[in-house]
Fold each of these.
Amino acid sequence: MTGSQRAGRATAVAVFLAVVFVAIPWTIAATGRTDLYYTLSSVALLAIASGGVWLTFYIGRINIGQGAWALAGGYVSAVLVTTTGLSFWLSLPIAGLFCAFFSVLIGLPILRLRGVYFSMVTLVLTEVARLTALALSITNGARGITSIPTPGPIGLFGLTIVPAFDSFAQRNAAFYFLSAAMMTLCFAGLWRLVHSRMGQLFAALRQNEDLASSMGVNVPLLRVVAYAISSFLGGIGGAIFVAIAQSIYPSSFTINDSVNFMLNCFLGGLGYVFGPMLGTLVLYFGWDLLFETGQYQLLIYSGSMILLILLLPNGLLSLLDLRWPSRRAP
């Protein structure tokens, strides 16, 4: 990587951080549109889950079941916080690890098979998770779990690092910073992953699994690892959703959400690490804007998606290829 490329990436990162953590809060404060904090928090957590779906696409697998892991992560966090009194901050990684563990159990047998079998299993996974949440007593069935406490403080050696969210005058602003920070960390981790040795092996799987296997690459193991990371991100997104909404129901994440997680990746660009982030932002606000068209909302939305896929098959970020080709995932 040349010095100019490093400088360009550093500048892009600085601009992103300035926009997310300075410009957006300042604009919301200046306009008084504090409701946008909740909206943008939702966009951030959906982007985290979409990032996990993108990783499975990166290894050449279609994942239509991310809603299941978001729902599972949300319930794990909600149950731990409400029944055991565990801090939200501890329940967050536990929710992700719970989803990663069970995704490994599911992935070990089916990820040895052709990709179509994996796609078929993930297609029904979200509905299985919803029906499980309806049937279990610990999840309160259709009544869901409500009145979930907000995140408490984080302290170290008697010093309060993060105050309790109840103490914030603008609680939605605190949730926005939480969601934005987690989104930034997750995508920074994804970017580092795809530029690591393991990321190169993931790219090899996407290009030619038979060739990778002939060179000694443990293809099934890498598939499972990628799926576990994907599910971990889904669980994290679901746990943050619970903290924001302070409730969760079996219908909180449905098959439609799993499909939207995929569409976010397509819209932003499957060949770009940050494609899911842009795709989530455009799809979320685009759907809301089309609400004004009434009965034609779905028709215009479907037509627009088809048109975008035809004109920009590599997603919206492909518009930057000529100027910043290094943004594309290897």
Amino acid sequence: MGLVVQKYGGSSVADAEGIKRVAKRIVEAKKNGHQVVAVVSAMGDTTDELIDLAEQVSPMPAGRELDMLLTAGERISMALLAMAIKNLGHSAQSFTGSQAGVITDSVHNKARIIDVTPGRIRTSVDEGNIAIVAGFQGVSQDSKDITTLGRGGSDTTAVALAAALDAEVCEIYTDVDGVFTADPRVVKKAKKIDWISFEDMLELAASGSKVLLHRCVEYARRYNIPIHVRSSFSGLRGTWVSSEPIDQGDEHVEQAIISGVAHDTSEAKVTVVGVPDKPGEAAAIFRAISDAEINIDMIVQNVSAASTGLTDISFTLPKSEGRKAIDALEKNKGGIGFDSLRYDDQIGKISLVGAGMKTNPGVTADFFKALSDAGVNIELISTSEIRISVVTRADDVNEAVRAVHSAFGLDSDSDEAVVYGGTGR
């Protein structure tokens, strides 16, 4: 039995009873012969409540101080969980992200991990302790300030520690029984996936699936760390995410043609109207966006009007970055030479993901027919070898997801998927 890293989300440790339930699960793994490192998120909605409190005090809180505030949530969880484990007769030690050796860059509120030096964690577990680590946080290599990794960063903390400690597996415990073919809150007949490749999981995560953070899956793929997504509310086997199919008892799990349908309503669309159709214009637009440190998703350029020599360029980005993008483009309007900007935050994205798509003709046609039959109008289209994404009206997203899910035979004939908590993390 080797070392396992377990991560518990906010819904799993939302209250005292949840913390005690998690403590029993961790102790059970310890009794089974494993060394255990547990990574915890803040309790329930603590992070949101702290953000609300900060905004009541200051409309634009300083990044450094906001990080100092937000990391308190995970410190509360780790200390209480260590107490609960000790109450069960086992030794446990809690560690902040910096004490655990999570080294990051200096970007507050969305820092990236650049190194993990888990000497104290290794010493603790070798001495027979269960190590409890506060997720979502680290320490800047340059300034030595406390940093946070962005929302969902506890997943990344767990995988990074698993890689640094050469763990057998990283178990991500959440409030659903694994990764499903669609969000079970939207599609009640969604199926649980037994195994999914890193590549398909990356596409699902990037397309809006909230069970695993995109950065977490990318880190796991880079260091080939198997992830087991499970529910902390049941004892059921979950979903394995790894580079190759795995054996589960006598059952060999194979890759499905279609892995699932993901959706995302957190994006907005910006249209740059009246762009001169000549070399360098698109570069100028996206340089302005890049300089503002904004990540974009889908891009579409219309055909140039012959009479005017002008075209429109549309792209999607997180709603939270919308105002910043508009300001950056307006600031560079003279150099780019466009006529006007349009902003639309009432959109949604639906994505069909599956590695088998590229060798199965007709997938694209079936996808668009399902949307057509559901009366869903398409505004933007983007594809890769294993993904088709479209942008529609936000009001049409749920119906579109259900239609596509049924059209590809993904609906389950068995019991409906169970959502034990309320957040999906």
